[in-house]
Design goal:
alpha+beta; Glutaredoxin; 7-stranded mixed β-sheet; 9 strands
């Protein structure tokens, strides 16, 4: 598995959000976009990561950053996650993991001795011109938001 590197153009995507609206990355030119991939809505690690991003939304807004959480969850699962956790950013459904493949975050994983293919928890900060500015691949779910904010402040 080889994920996108800094400086690469971000793969353009069109995905359905929690309200089944089509979201296009190209519509966000001129803004920074944090694309964070997570395995499954409403699981413990994914919930903590989402809650923390929710709680720092004002700081992300101040840095002109839009947040998109992308998972292989079906669209119908996403509104439940948003409502349950009062999320204030957009979740996108990548059921066939086409976008996860394009970013290089879909691949072999191990959990409790079993091997399977799935999403690796990696985030990409895409700059105003659509290029990968920063890759966040070394963090704990509870610290993800701090790692992102520390980078934005530096």
């Amino acid at each position: 598995m080889q994920f996108l590197a800094e400086g690469n153009p971000a793969p353009q995507f069109e995905l359905a959000d929690q309200d089944d609206n089509i979201i296009k990355l190209s519509d966000y030119e001129g803004k920074k976009v944090l694309v964070y991939f997570y395995p499954k809505a409403m699981t413990p690690g994914c919930t903590v990561q989402a809650q923390n991003l929710r709680d720092v939304k004002a700081e992300l807004d101040a840095h002109n950053v839009v947040v998109f959480g992308i998972s292989p969850d079906p669209v119908k699962r996403l509104p439940k996650f948003i409502e349950k956790e009062s999320l204030n950013f957009t979740l996108l459904s990548d059921e066939n993991h086409q976008i996860a493949d394009a970013f290089g975050v879909w691949g072999p994983k191990k959990f409790m001795g079993k091997e399977y293919d799935g999403i690796h928890r990696i985030s990409f900060l895409i700059d105003e011109n659509g290029n990968v500015e920063k890759v966040f691949d070394k963090f704990k779910t509870k610290d993800h938001h701090e790692v992102v904010l520390d980078y934005l402040k530096s």
